[in-house]
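batch_manifest entry 22 of 60
target: tRNA modification GTPase MnmE
source organism: Reticulibacter mediterranei
requested by: lab member K.T.
priority: normal
notes from requester: please return tokens only, no post-processing; we will run our own comparison against the previous entry in this batch. if the run fails, retry once and flag.
--- input ---
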Amino acid sequence: MQNDTIAAIATPPGVGGIGVVRVSGTDAFSLVAPLLRRPGKPQEVPPIPPSHMLIYRHIIDPTTQDVLDEVLVAFMHAPHSYTAEDVVEIQGHGGPLILKRILRSVLAQGARMANPGEFTLRAFLNGRMDLAQAEAVMDLIGAQTEAGQRLAMQQLRGRLSEQVQAARQATLGVIARIEASIDFPEDDVPTPQPEELRPLIALAQQQVDLLLAGSEQGRLYRQGLRTAIIGRPNVGKSSLLNALLRTERAIVTPVAGTTRDTVEEIANLRGIPLHLIDTAGITPTTDPVEQIGVERSRAAAESADVVLLVYDGSEPLTEQDRKVSSELQAMGFGEYITLDASANDAYQHRRPVVVVVNKADRPLRLEVAEIGAAWPQATFVKTSTLTGEGLATLEEAIADLVLAGKVLSNESVLVTNVRHQEALRQAAEHLQASVISLEQGLPLDFVSIDLRAAYDALGEVTGETASEDLLDKIFSEFCIGK
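--- output ---
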């Protein structure tokens, strides 16, 4: 129900300097005001201050009249608030018990506990932001790099929505011309000819294709790049993880098989969260614990976007090396699929391999030519985790694989959300279907059906055609208090 008043703790769980209890709804002011007192005047309920003024008060338990905390309180009149409703934000000391008691007092006054994402849902339903902007709120909170934060901020400011709306309006313009000629034949509205409609549809297609062109890159900035470090035992995988992280995260010993489980950490690679996964060496074993580690290594490789295939450059190839290589090839790694939007495989994901010849500080004994024959399209990098040689080159190689030389500017607008990406793909398919219908000389009704489907698909991005089930799913993933 949107006509009731909701409340929740809006700051993360745990101990902090301050914590915030947020209250939103028609009765927010009347529920919170009786809980506030001026210091030294416990019997007096002070008047509600002007909107957006931060005031110092004591807050009490309505049952016992005990003072719960010293707080700063802001009353924000609708529509100039986060939800576009009357909102009260209570800033208390950031102890979990204190905040829970403050929240309990507000709930005792008649407020309802907010559902996950309900404050942002109300902001959407009240027209303060569209659905793409609402989703950007969680992207902004969860951003792991500055680049991801910038993209989320661009989406929150409505830059993505503007471009989607431009494509939507272009599509609507074509629909209007077609349907006017169908609905009002008695008014001598001329029937548009295919040669008139094709450029108009092409305009919408260009705008959708432009958004889709950067969608894979946008996904990487938001979700990160899963990078599995694979190889037989004792080739230096854990040392490589530590070197890329610039910290001693994984245990490293001269004993083969030290790593018996996957270890996952995040590094920042040109603004992309690089999810580095150190794995147990893939090797035949009868040890049940090692067997589990090997299976997890295989699972990590299967789910990876990129594999760093590590060899010990100071030793000749072993049968274990060859077996690891064969397993990766069986998984489909090494196939190079371009991310260029002009190619037929524009929106497919590639599974590249970077061959890392480790221990470059020692004499080279590895049969590099044999590895090159097995991985003709792979990037080769020589590294030494002892001296640091080649680490910068390795980072550049990974970045070049996924960014293809593209640089994220401060004004870049990229589609980062998989849901948006899928809606745009559907719109692109329907627009193309409408062109095919035109070329086949089908009645304009058929053309209009596909254009209307494209228009609705674009509306799912901004929420104008989103179903209630979709809204429930999206906002259920938000944290309570947001």
